[in-house]
Structure formats: structure tokens, C-alpha cells
Amino acid sequence: QQPVQSPQAVILREGEDAVINCSSSKALYSVHWYRQKHGEAPVFLMILLKGGEQKGHDKISASFNEKKQQSSLYLTASQLSYSGTYFCGTALINFGNEKLTFGTGTRLTIIP
Amino acid sequence: KAGVTQTPRYLIKTRGQQVTLSCSPISGHRSVSWYQQTPGQGLQFLFEYFSETQRNKGNFPGRFSGRQFSNSRSEMNVSTLELGDSALYLCASSPRDSRRANYGYTFGSGTRLTVV
Is any Cβ of chain A less than 8 angstroms from the Cβ of B96? Predict the structure, then answer.
């Protein structure tokens, strides 16, 4: 079952904050977040594990609500370099034998 | 450190032909996954290999197959190509295991396949 991402697209001015959500109808073990710029490969941002902590580095962080099977990616004080399509990838079982199912993506555009 | 290398970058094939795509993972990564990316369907999981064994398979027809060699390099084959197989095929490798739970996947730049 493909996770649902929202919003599908968002346009922000530099310095504004954004939240991207990822919801699953199934119990999740982990959630991955990736960013893909046009014409490039997806790049790994972070992973959240069941029972794990909220993650973050620089001004990008994420949380995982196990009860709701939802994850949110937070981008604060957005920079032009944050533009791209963000994908969440969900796994139903633990590492070592997982199959990532990706959401349809959220296109983020940062304007000066 | 070299990244994930996929060859060729671009490919044009005729309906009915078959194609083989290659992926060289990052040194030391034993897990290799393949994804199909299209504008309409997004990133769709094809299969995952670990130590030459297919561990997981997505919902694609049997025309899609793959294998992994002892050096972790992987190939993907699509037989009897259809127009709908036109897509970007991405390979991703990872060192993920029980001791490396916080690692994600590193994607290659992909092979753009066009079926005419």
C-alpha cells in the first residue's frame, strides 16, 4: 500500500518553514525521507525507526508517530537549495529484509 | 568514495526487444534494490538482492528479472519490451543490516529507457 504524502506541491519564499506529511494505512517499522532534484538521483535525508527518536540535522528534522502511522518532515528557514521533490519511503518490517514503498512525492519550490 | 554506478545512462529500444541494465553498488554494500520511476506512478519497487539472493520482489510481471553477482554488482533484465516500460530505472545500494539500522539507500543516476 503506497503511503500518502501531503501536500502534493508547495511554494515558499526563502526563510519560510514547511511541513511535509506521510501517512500509511499499515503499521510501519521505519520511514525514510529522500529529496530528488530535477534530473538527479534521490538523496537520502534521514530514517526514523519504530521506537526511535525524532531526527534532524541542520534545519531539516522529522518525526514518526507510531500510533497514527504518520511521519512529518520539517524544513525550517528554507533555503533555495531545499527545492526539489521529497519522497517518504515506508517499510513494514525491520532492516535486513525490507521493501521500501515510496509515496508519490511532494514538490517543494523555494523562491527568493 | 565512488557512488552507485548505472550503465548505460540512456537507452532506446524497440517494442518486443529485451534489455539489460547494470548497476555497480558502493563498495561494501551488499544490498541492491531496483526501482522504476515514471511521472504517473512515482517510484515503484522492482526487487532487492542481498548476497546474490532475491529477498523481495515488487508487483511487476515476470518479464522483469534481475540477478546479483558475487561482487554485489547487479543486472536487471526486461524481456519483450512494451511501450509502458519507458521509464527511469534506478538502482540503490545500502549497507543496512542489524548493526547499521540508521543507514539509508544511495541511489545511482539511473538508466533512462525509452521504448518506441
Answer: yes
CA distances from A9 to A38, A107, B56 (A): 14, 4, 31
CA-nearest of B54, B61, B8, B12 to B33 is B54
| Other residues' Cβ atoms within 10 Å of the Cβ of residue A87 | 26
Cell of residue B7, nine digits: 550503465
Contact A101/B45, CB-based, under 8 Å? yes
Q: Which residue has the higher pLDDT, A56 or B10?
A: B10
In this predicted model, what pLDDT tens digit does every residue of A23-78 receive, in sequence order? 999 888 889 999 999 989 999 999 998 776 667 777 899 999 888 999 999 999 99
**How many residues are present in chain A?**
112
Tell me whether strands A30-36 and A43-49 are parallel, antiparallel or unpaired. Answer: antiparallel
Which residue of chain A comes nearest to B30, CA vs CA? Answer: A96
Q: Do A49 and B102 touch (CB under 8 A)?
A: yes
Of B99, B81, B84, B94, residue with least CA distance to B23: B94
CB contact under 8 A, B109 and A47: no
CA–CA–CA angle B14, B17, B18 (5° rounding): 125
For B31-62, write each residue's pLDDT tens digit: 999 999 998 888 999 999 998 999 889 999 99
